[in-house]
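Please check this.
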Amino acid sequence: MINATIEAIRTALHKEFGDAYAVISEGGMQDLKGPCFFISCRHTAFKQMAGRKYFRKNQYVIRHVPEPGHARTGCYAAAGMPLTGGTNGEVDGNAYQDYLDKAEAFRFHTMGVVTTDETTKRLFAAYVKRMRNEVGVKFQLVLYQFPSADDMGVISVKNKCVDGRTVTEEKTDDPKEASLVLKYSQ
């Protein structure tokens, strides 16, 4: 099962990046030379279910090894690639609440929300406050320009992060103002 999953990851990486990157699994981890990807199964856990049935959970690590002397070039190229197979729909408060309901099942250290909508910011700030104070789950939330949070679990970032536009010192209400950077310059 583990080998089949590693082979599926290898196939997906080869389909996405072609022959430009070697894909190496656990057996070939000696003397890694970039550019390549290294795939390994980090942790396997078993949990007994009803009767003789077991739930098996595997955590995989995919490590990018850059070409020598070009450590960030490969990362920039991969980070700028659009994801495929999904759609961008309209997101409303119900979608954010569904996300927060599902996020309670996971452990993480930081959650970032890319929005300029004050209502959505308040929703996430209330969530992190409840999780920290009532549930005991400690993590931090990063929001764009939300100094009114007044909570040690919320980090308010003042810096602008824009898509391919010139950044000025004035604050704008541009909905794309808090979106992720998609273009890189060297």
Summary: The longest strand covers residues 36-48. The longest helix spans residues 118-135.
